[in-house]
Design brief:
This protein has 344 residues and is an alpha/beta fold. The protein has a single domain, classed as Spore Coat Polysaccharide Biosynthesis Protein SpsA, Chain A (Alpha-Beta Complex). Helices cover 37% and strands 12% of the residues. It has 14 helices and 12 strands. 40% of the residues are buried. The C terminus is likely disordered. Belongs to the glycosyltransferase 15 family.
Length: 344
């Protein structure tokens, strides 16, 4: 993988964060600096729909020797589009809330998901960049990362890297897959030759979820950890897909997350050989984790997906992913395939 300590000039660590999340993002910065960025010195770019306070800037700058940029999101990228009917929005949000959909009535959450789905890669602060690592408040890293993850993507022709592979709540996205199929019908030329169709449509492991999501397994890469190539999102296949989705207003009338939208996009329009599971990066966000079985790692239980509660293991989509990548034993993932029935 290479031990390259000079940072690339086309990569950065990014975070969408509110001023009131200062303590959480400082916690994450310390995790990132200690385990990765103190060695490589990649810039931090913070985004907010409102101006950052001077205290936020001062305290975050104290956490890194790398440069920090503070960017406000343009209103045209954040505001509710005029095509959204206010009455219908209120009705749909109340209906989702009554059915227990998380964040259903949190309008800013809907806006965040839409921004990360189709606007973050259009921000001028990222216009000169190729790669990014997305970070959220209160994340944990358990293993020193001794190599440059951005260089790894570049050297190995990868466009997307993940750690956690998980089911979604089908109540948040009943029309997402039907809208996706409508887009594919109109644009079959965008489909990747060796894509992740099986993973996206699996109905054997959680048939109840697939049924309620109208043919979508809901398996997705958890995008609170995301190391990826901005050029994929900028490309015609993904961006036109987002435009199609956005016209349906599903980010507001339903509660589509950016994680399933990103995952469907990269899963359908790319070759799965260009998607990388960073199995060696120990990572936790809320109750889910990726913990390698390695002496390098401390503070997590090896191979535990849900260290907090055993019943949450049903949300793990790793078996589905291995079923997908192991269809082609010649792939780089082939070394994983003999172990696919083990909890690893």
């Amino acid at each position: 993988m290479g031990d390259q300590s000079s940072p690339r000039n086309d990569s950065a660590i990014i975070a969408l964060v509110r001023t009131e999340e200062l303590d959480g993002i400082i916690f994450s910065m310390r995790q990132m600096e200690q385990n990765f960025n103190a060695k490589f010195g990649y810039p931090w770019i913070f985004f907010n729909d409102k101006p950052f306070t001077e205290e936020f800037k001062r305290r975050t700058r104290l956490e890194t020797r790398a440069s920090c940029l503070y960017e406000q999101i343009p209103s045209e990228h954040w505001d509710i589009p005029s095509s959204v009917d206010p009455g219908k929005l209120t009705e749909h949000m109340a209906n989702m809330k009554s059915r227990g959909v998380k964040h259903a009535s949190d309008l800013s959450y809907h806006q965040m998901c839409r921004w990360y789905s189709g606007f973050f890669y259009k921000h001028r602060a990222l216009s000169h960049l190729r790669y990014y690592w997305r970070v959220e408040p209160w994340i944990k890293l358990f293993c020193p990362i001794e190599y440059d993850v951005f260089q790894y993507l570049s050297d190995n022709d990868k466009v997307y890297g993940f750690t956690i592979n998980i089911y979604d709540d089908p109540l948040t996205l009943p029309s997402l897959w039907p809208e996706t199929l409508a887009f594919i019908t109109e644009n079959p030329h965008h489909l990747g030759q060796n894509n992740a169709w099986k993973w996206l449509t699996d109905n054997t492991h959680r048939p109840d979820v697939n049924l309620r999501a109208n043919g979508f397994s809901t398996c997705h890469f958890w995008s609170n950890f995301e190391i990826a190539d901005l050029n994929f999102w900028r490309g015609d296949a993904y961006d036109s897909y987002f435009q199609h989705l956005d016209r349906s207003n599903g980010f507001f009338y339903e509660r589509w997350g950016d994680a399933p939208v990103h995952s469907i996009g990269v899963g359908l329009f790319e070759n799965i050989s260009r998607i990388h599971w960073f199995r060696d990066i120990g990572y936790q966000h809320t109750v889910y984790a990726n913990c390698p079985d390695s002496d390098r790692c401390n503070g997590c239980e090896p191979n535990k997906f849900a260290p907090v509660a055993f019943w949450l293991n049903q949300e793990d989509c790793r078996v589905n992913w291995l079923d997908q990548v192991c269809q082609d034993s010649a792939m780089e993932h082939g070394y994983l395939c003999p172990k696919r029935n083990r909890n690893h």
